[in-house]
Amino acid sequence: MSSAAPRTTGQDHLWSVDEHLEDILATVRPLEPIELQLLDAQGCVLVEDVTVPVSLPPFDNSSMDGYAVRVADVAGASEEFPAVLEVVGDVAAGQADLLHVGPGQAARIMTGAPLPPGAETVVPVEWTDGGLGEGPVSGMRARALAPEGAAGQVRVYRPAEARAHVRAKGSDVRAGDRALEAGTVLGPPQIALLAAIGRGTVRVRPRPRVVVLSTGSELVQPGEELGSGQIYDSNSFALTAAARDAGALAYRVGAVADDAETLRSTIEDQLIRADLLVTTGGVSVGAYDVVKEALSHVGDEDEPGSGVEFRKLAMQPGKPQGFGSIGPDHTPLLALPGNPVSSYVSFELFVRPAIRTLMGLTDVHRPRRRATLRADRALTSPKGRRQFLRGAYADGAVTPVGGSGSHLVAALAQADALIVVPEDVESVEPGAEVEVVLLG
Questions:
Q1: Between β-strands 34-37 and 201-205, what pairing exists: parallel, antiparallel or unpaired?
Q2: How do residues 87-129 score in pLDDT, each as one tens digit?
Q3: What is the distance, to the nearest Å, from the Cα of residue 282 to the centroid of all Cα atoms in its chain?
Q4: What pLDDT, in 10s, does the model give residues 60-87?
Q5: Which are the contacts of 17, defined by CB distance < 8 A and separation ≥ 6?
Q6: What are the phi and psi torsion angles at 256 (to 5°)?
Q7: Separation CA 121–CA 151 (nearest Å)
Q8: Distance CA 176, CA 293 (A)
């Protein structure tokens, strides 16, 4: 992260969503590249092009279990007049010393095995009698059960064109081709390709380590008994899952009670494993808003450029927000509101793009679409606030889910989109076109 502190304005300044996000993305920097083993690189972003050192496949090989033959020897073959060939042996996958197939000969060949010298095509075993002399067969008998199958004669009942059922050398990729571009996110298919071309390690930007921490003396771990005035801590679970979904390695810290010193100490302990810290709760104007109390004056002469600024944003939900950096490495910290919907919407708008930026991605935002509003009545929105309502999106239309309350977790669980109502719009009629942020 850059050591530049976020810009400051008066306490009463109302920040726009775009201003706050701009500050975050101007400050967060992609993580430094490292060399990782393939499986450790899953989910990471390549920082350099990968060139193919060896063609795939590296040799002509069979795509079927069958017999490697010469084209002329099976020309005109039929069930009434089969071609009868001498079987000279087996060619198995991984076999180094290959048989030579001469005129009137055939080699029993397995899927993936190299096409032997002299052979021009492969006839599937289903087109033959499998060497048993009893008409077409459905498959080969295992060599262990019938070693004699690799010798004797085989009857072929259908002709085959040149190079039928043969995977040509380099038909997948050729040596010197670009296998993967810098900026590619490594998923299972990309890992498979890297392994197939012999790469054991790859240079990537690592997945960011994100520590999620919720605050509130009323919070109880799920699975424990609720006491009077207590609620279960859902925010830390939601945001940890969201961070993992964004591509991070996310760690959840148990809820911290409303004590500034305890919170400050907990955050300092977590710095060793964090590329990004996310807190939820304690950022408003109440007497027990400990995140604000604990972090408002973080940053001293030993850590120039550090500090967390708390802001009011022209948005609903999610008006109170905090952003800055802490610790000797200027670890970025985003402080989100405590209401469940507010914290989740804030994550999608601000934290997810920060995570994707740390990963080194260029497109850090959720996709957006224009959609027709399907609703029983007009949507209302406070003037001067950009509102984000939960919605279900399908076939170019979006339907509101639940109300505008920032505590409605059940409605959030049914939503796969956010309906965006701009600051200058106070009412949206059914049938109107709206912007939606797709969450899935």
A1: antiparallel
A2: 999 999 888 788 999 999 999 999 999 999 999 999 999 999 9
A3: 31
A4: 999 999 999 999 999 999 999 999 999 9
A5: 313, 314, 315, 349, 386
A6: -100, 135
A7: 19
A8: 58
